[in-house]
Design brief:
By secondary structure, the protein is an alpha/beta fold. The chain has one domain: Alpha-Beta Barrel (TIM Barrel). The chain contains seven helices and seven strands. Strands 1-2-3-4-5-6-7 form a seven-stranded mixed β-sheet. The model has no long low-confidence stretch (mean pLDDT about 90). It comes from Agathobacter ruminis. This is Radical SAM protein.
Length: about 200
């Protein structure tokens, strides 16, 4: 059975769904079954809200002050569970909450979800992956139309409602695309984090 909560480096992560509306060419879920301290993050069946909340309530977070919502699926594809779990993490465990997302949650849930996120999420990291729609479609292979524009709009909504928001890219992008991402970061007023691809 896949882990709902797992440790990776110095953080604790919540793996709440397998579902994702992208098929990124570099996604680790296509390369191996697990990461960090767990052998598998593939749920045979997606966990229920009750199972996720129980996992958080029963977990020993000693030495950790944050719970990160990031697994083998896109957390906003299980929005009801995400919101409930983040609330429990904050109110019952005293944790900060971070959402790692592809930024397509509004499209997935057919409306602006940012006000709901802002009530329980302290920081958001959005996978930019590419600096323009053409490159984004090629590397991210989204299952929704006009995904790049919708992702950028989501980022701007988060910027205006949530204290800490940043773009995230991996360092395997061509240098010219990294520079374009830096420019988009400047244009949107959202900081850019360049992660090492492992």
């Amino acid at each position: 059975m896949a882990e709902i909560l797992y440790k990776y480096k110095d953080s604790v992560y919540a793996n709440i769904t397998n579902k994702c509306n992208c098929r990124c060419t570099f996604c680790i879920r296509f390369l191996k079954d697990g990461i960090g301290d767990t052998d598998t993050l593939w749920h045979q069946e997606n966990p229920s809200k009750e199972e996720v909340l129980a996992a958080i309530r029963n977990y020993d977070f000693t030495g950790h002050d944050e719970l990160v919502f990031c697994g083998y699926g896109e957390p906003t594809c299980a929005l009801d569970i995400l919101l409930a779990a983040a609330k429990v993490a904050k109110e019952e465990k005293g944790l900060k909450t971070r959402l790692n997302t592809n930024g397509l949650g509004c499209e997935e849930n057919h409306g602006n979800i940012v006000p709901q996120l802002a009530e329980v999420i302290d920081s958001v990291s959005i996978s930019l992956n590419a600096p323009n729609a053409q490159a984004y479609e090629k590397v991210t292979r989204p299952l929704v139309p006009s995904a790049f524009d919708k992702m950028v709009e989501f980022a701007k909504l988060c910027r205006d409602a949530i204290k800490e928001v940043k773009w995230s890219i991996v360092d395997v992008l061509p240098e010219n695309q990294i520079e374009e991402c830096r420019q988009l970061s400047e244009d949107t007023g959202i900081p850019l984090r360049i992660r090492h691809f492992s």
